[in-house]
């Protein structure tokens, strides 16, 4: 797959992985739509990109699912078409199950799962009509195996795999592709912005995230996976071994995760 003459829509584009993707893809011969809740931050990202005349900013809030159908129509009208939707927007969570308010679980499902699903479903008729389209979904290794203190996040990411595996099967004949991107630890603000037991932000960085892949290194690997139209891509350091260990011996993976003392 080539990005040549493609229109790419990126959610969560104001920071972290989304910002890095925007900067990298702006060097390609394609047009970009950048979305998040924060227009000022999106405009800042646009100003840092190459070829800003090929970039449009469109605000959205994934938690407001009832607005996403109209926003999708607006997105299509900007350049007349969308070829690739990169579902990158979302939030994380750091708290013990026994302490976590159900409102936090609900928020993670509303944003990370239902918001992503609603946006993707709104765009689906456009992809079907064009007999072409590519969903890229930033999941997590936590969508393949779980870790302590991330229960709501793991649940939402596992749900994404179930939905998009079904979508890929249902629309294979429509030439619609799905690539699930599963990051391990990437050095972004994801931990600082993670919700705690009462719904407030953690604010502090954690050592594993800080020592994770640099975001530009991750982005290069992610773009390579998109080009290859991979079904799934596991991108990280040694933590990606957990995916394979889960298949071989879930009990051994359980013991290893406990020994890592992840927080």
Structural notes for this entry:
This protein is 44% helix and 13% strand. It has helices at residues 16-25, 39-48, 68-79, 102-130, 151-170, 207-210, 215-227, 241-248, 250-260, and strands at 7-11, 31-35, 55-57, 84-87, 133-138, 176-183, 232-235. A seven-stranded parallel sheet has the order 3-2-1-4-5-6-7, sandwiched between helices. Helix 5 links the parallel strand 5 and strand 6 (176-183). 42% of the residues are buried. The mean pLDDT is 97.
Tally of individual helices: 9
CATH topology: Rossmann fold
Give the tally of structural domains: 1
Q: How many beta strands in the DSSP annotation? A: 7
Task: Tell me the CATH architecture.
Answer: 3-Layer(aba) Sandwich
Strand content: 5-15%
> Which residue ranges are poorly predicted, with pLDDT under 50 across at least 5 consecutive positions?
none
The SSE order reads: EHEHEHEHEHEHHEHH
Mean pLDDT: 97
Name the strands of the widest sheet in spatial order.
3-2-1-4-5-6-7
Shape: globular
Structural class: alpha/beta
Family: Belongs to the short-chain dehydrogenases/reductases (SDR) family.
Organism: Oceanihabitans sediminis
Keywords: Oxidoreductase
GO molecular function, one term: oxidoreductase activity
């Amino acid at each position: 797959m080539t990005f040549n003459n493609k229109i790419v829509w990126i959610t969560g584009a104001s920071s972290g992985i989304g910002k890095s993707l925007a900067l990298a893809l702006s060097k390609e011969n394609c047009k970009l739509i950048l979305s998040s809740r924060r227009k000022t931050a999106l405009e800042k990202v646009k100003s840092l990109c190459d070829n800003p005349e090929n970039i449009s900013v469109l605000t959205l809030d994934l938690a407001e699912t009832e607005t996403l159908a109209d926003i999708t129509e607006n997105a299509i009208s900007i350049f007349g078409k969308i070829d690739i939707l990169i579902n990158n927007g979302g939030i994380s969570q750091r708290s013990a199950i026994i302490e976590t308010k159900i409102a936090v679980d609900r928020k993670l499902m509303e944003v990370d799962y239902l918001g992503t699903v609603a946006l993707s479903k709104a765009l689906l008729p456009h992809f079907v009509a064009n007999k072409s389209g590519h969903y890229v979904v930033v999941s997590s290794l936590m969508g393949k195996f779980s870790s302590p203190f991330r229960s709501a996040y793991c649940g939402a990411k596992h749900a994404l795999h179930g939905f998009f595996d079904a979508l890929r099967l249902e629309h294979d004949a429509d030439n619609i592709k799905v690539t699930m991107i599963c990051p391990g630890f990437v050095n972004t603000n994801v931990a600082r912005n993670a919700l705690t037991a009462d719904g407030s932000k953690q604010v502090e960085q954690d050592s594993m995230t800080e020592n994770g892949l640099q975001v530009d290194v991750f982005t290069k690997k992610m773009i390579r996976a998109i080009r290859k139209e991979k079904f799934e891509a596991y991108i990280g350091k040694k933590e990606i071994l957990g995916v394979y260990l889960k298949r071989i011996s879930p009990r051994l993976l359980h013991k290893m995760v406990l020994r890592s003392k992840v927080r």
